[in-house]
Structure formats: C-alpha cells, structure tokens
C-alpha cells in the first residue's frame, strides 16, 4: 500500500541501476513509472532478486509467529495449485472439500459441540484479521437483531478487550463502527484482567474478546475465570454477553500442550474462535480460520448465496478471489502431522524456548516477562536500562543477522520496553544456543560503550532519534555507492 505523497528514497534516484545490466539490456529501468519497453525475463529476474537480497532472512526473523519453513512435499502441492482460484468452488470442488475438512478438524480440536452426523460451522480466511472481522460482524449483527426485537436502541455497540489486543481489533472497531473498550494493563500484569473486563460490560457490549496468546508476551488470558464472572453477570442482568477467543497464536498450542486448560467451546459462552493457520498451524502466509460454536451463532443474513458459474455457494468472507495453496497446505499439515506430530513440534518449540529463557536469565541482566505457560516465546526487559536500552540491543543483534524486535508495552504499561523472541518450528536448539551467545556478546560490548542518555525516561525518544540517525547514515552510504557506480566504478 502506498499512502505517502513524497517518496522517501527519492534522493537515491528514480532509476534502478542494476548490477549485471550490460549482460542483458542497456538502459536502467524507471522505479515509479511503468517502463515503456519490455526487458528480457532474465534481466527482470536479476533486478528483482538483487533488490530483495536486502530484505531480512525470514528464518532469522524472530519477530514473527508466521511460518517460515515447510516440507518440500507440501511446497510441491502449493506450487501445483498456485494458479487455482479458491472461489471457483464449482470448478475445484475438491479444494472446497479440503477446506471443509480443515474447518471440521479445527472445530473438533476446539471441542465444538458437533454431533457425529453434523458438520462444523466455520470458514477459511486470509488470516486471523479477516477471521476476526467476520466473527466481530456476527456478534454485532446478533446483538443488533436482539436489541431491535426488544425495541431498544442499537446504535452504540461496544466490545471489551484488553489494551494488549492485536491491532486488527482496533481495525475491526473502526471499520465496523464498534466502540473498543480496553482494559488497561499495569506494570507486571500484561493481559486483560477478567474482573475489570466484566465490570466494563454493559447492555451494549456485543462480546468480550479474550486472547489465547497475547501478542506482546505470549501469555494466555484466563478465559475460564472470565467465563465464570461473565456468566454471573449475565444471570444478574438478564443479558447474554458472549465471548470470542482470539487464539491466533495459541489455538494450535493449547490443545497439544495444555489439553486440560479450558478456554474453548467447552465454555458455553464462547461462541466463536479464530486461529491463524500461518502461525502455529504451520502453513506459509496467509491462511486463518474462524469457527462458530453452532449454526445459530452465525446470523443467516451475513451469508451470501452466490450463484456463480452455475452453482449455489454459501460464502462469508470479505474478499472474493484468492489462492488455494494455503488451504491445501493446511490440510497437508493436519493429516501429515496428526495430533501426535503437532504435539511433538509444539513440545520441541517449548523446550527450545525454555533453553533460550534460561540462557537469558543466566546473564543476570534481564527480567523475563513471558510466562512458562503460553505461546513458545521469550519476552524480556533490561533490569537496568539507565545506561543502555533494549532498542540498542535489538540494533546490535542485527549485525549478527538476528532480527529481534524491541517495543514498549500497551497502556498503562508503556514505560516497560521489552525484547521478544518467537520460537518457531525451524528455530533449532543450536540456533537458540548461538543466539544466547550473541546476546551475551552484545550486552558485554554495550557495557564498554558510554551511555547515550542518562535518564531512563528519555530512552524511548532518544532511541527513535538514534534510529533515524542510522537510517540517514545508511542512506548516505548508499548514495555514495550509487554515485560511484554511475561514474563507472563498481
Ligand atoms: C497475529 C495475531 C492476529 C492477527 O492475525 P493474522 O493472522 O496475522 O491476520 C490477531 N490476534 C493475535 C492475538 C495475533 O497474535
């Protein structure tokens, strides 16, 4: 998406000068306008491939939950279906069938009350964000219908979440005109407090959204306690405020590692759950899922019956055309791994996260903010950031190839800044050990450098400036390289 009016790297020129130009073509290619003339396919490939070399390496991107490795057999299936439009259900009925099987497997995994002869209610999406838009819409529509039937106003819907929600909830709230009521965090408590959440519920609350695997710390919110408190409040008030569980990252963790943890459809007020297939569902981006408890929880008037190229197809998505590869890949993972395979992988991730956590703890410089029960990640803050900050550590780790994000917590814990390392299937034990050694190196190195600011309060703004400063330096260096190239040197 392009929304800026000025192009930030304009200074570096409007033309792409590519390294092997003379082998293929004479003239450079314009960057912001479609070129007049065609170029050979080898040249196009070379130009793009060269530019992409400067992207980070996905497997070293420890910022992301999203899958960066799959088996070659599955990649083969994905490539073979890359030209298949998912929406052509009449033409590709088997792909549609595989999607339905995935929905059913996931619904059972989440303990949906689906009878032996029934099929589950749910849909494949581009990711949890789309899944959450759909689930949110269903709650809004149900609430509105009920209010209308009672002759009550239905123009001020709200949704209660923790301030730690992922940005897609804010998007949902803004796009679909629902007020987002956020329970504030506090130092040392980085998830939604169920007591405060239920206090915020009123007659206009369309649902309370709990997160299974907070994006910031991986911690599971206490859905069971939320359920207990909300059930009581519903009894007292006569409302029937439901719960949605955002299990984007935890939906493929909890059933395998903590089967006794009650967070899903075992709790009657939980009406819908979303999960990202491309996170611990172990599929490349983008695929997500949303499952409803029963047919009654998904209002009929949201379902479109499209008569497309000769057949009636019910759909509930925000888009029309999309690829089929991710759905097929999800089906592959579910049948290839089975319960046993997923369990082994999640246990392995967890034990690598533990190794990482222990190594970081041993340095004596950090407080661990993530919990032992949750999504396999390690979030940690500096015990003392008066001399150096987590942002400097993040920057320094880049030199070793590691991408470890540093960020501040949500309100009211913004003064806490943390580093977060997500452990995925492809992050091995030896990589974990290597990373510990590199963090140790970075911390010791920073010790020898003078503090860049003296007060703790100033560290966030100072780091932002410092980042800009480095960016300018890099840009200046590139400009010199480009100028030299233009002058004929290489
Ligand atoms: C990642 C995430 C999302 C968004 O999911 P996408 O699949 O990236 O759209 C929503 N909620 C939580 C808790 C997440 O971790």
What do these coordinates show?
One of its GO terms (molecular function) is pyridoxal phosphate binding. This is Glutamate decarboxylase. This protein has helices at 21-24, 41-52, 72-80, 93-109, 128-149, 167-175, 194-200, 223-237, 254-257, 325-362, 390-398, 429-448, 459-486, and strands at residues 15-16, 29-30, 121-125, 158-162, 179-183, 205-211, 243-246, 270-276, 288-292, 304-308, 311-315, 366-368, 377-382, 406-408, 417-422. By secondary structure, it is α/β, with parallel strands linked by helices. The chain folds into three domains: 1-55, no CATH class; 76-334, Type I PLP-dependent aspartate aminotransferase-like (Major domain) (Aspartate Aminotransferase, domain 2), CATH 3.40.640.10; 349-467, Aspartate Aminotransferase, domain 1 (Alpha-Beta Complex), CATH 3.90.1150.160. The chain has a seven-stranded mixed sheet with strand order 3-9-8-7-6-4-5, sandwiched between helices. Strands 12-13-15-14 form a four-stranded antiparallel sheet. The protein has a two-stranded antiparallel sheet with strand order 1-2. Strand 12 (366-368) and strand 13 (377-382) form a beta hairpin. The longest helix is centred in the C-terminal third of the chain and has 38 residues, at 325-362. Residues 485-490 have low confidence and may be disordered.
Based on CA atoms alone, the radius of gyration comes out at 25 Å
The amount of beta strand, in percent, is: 5-15%
Secondary-structure element series? EHEHHHEHEHEHEHEHEEEEHEEHEEHH
Largest sheet: 7 strands, mixed
Query: Would you identify the regions where 5 or more consecutive residues have pLDDT less than 50?
Result: 485-490
If you average the pLDDT, what whole number results? Answer: 89
CATH superfamily of the largest domain: Type I PLP-dependent aspartate aminotransferase-like (Major domain)
Relative helix content: 25-40%
Number of domains as seen in the coordinates: 3
Small molecules in complex = pyridoxal-5'-phosphate
Number of strands: 15
The end-to-end distance, rounded to whole angstroms, is: 33 Å
According to CATH, what is the topology of the largest domain? Aspartate Aminotransferase, domain 2
Strand order of the largest sheet: 3-9-8-7-6-4-5
Tell me the name of the CATH class of the largest domain. Alpha Beta
SS element count, helices: 13
* Level-2 CATH architecture of the largest domain: 3-Layer(aba) Sandwich
Structural category: alpha/beta
Principal-axis shape: globular
Keywords: Calmodulin-binding, Decarboxylase, Lyase, Pyridoxal phosphate
Catalytic activity: L-glutamate + H(+) = 4-aminobutanoate + CO2
Pfam family, one: Pyridoxal_deC
GO molecular function: calmodulin binding; glutamate decarboxylase activity; pyridoxal phosphate binding
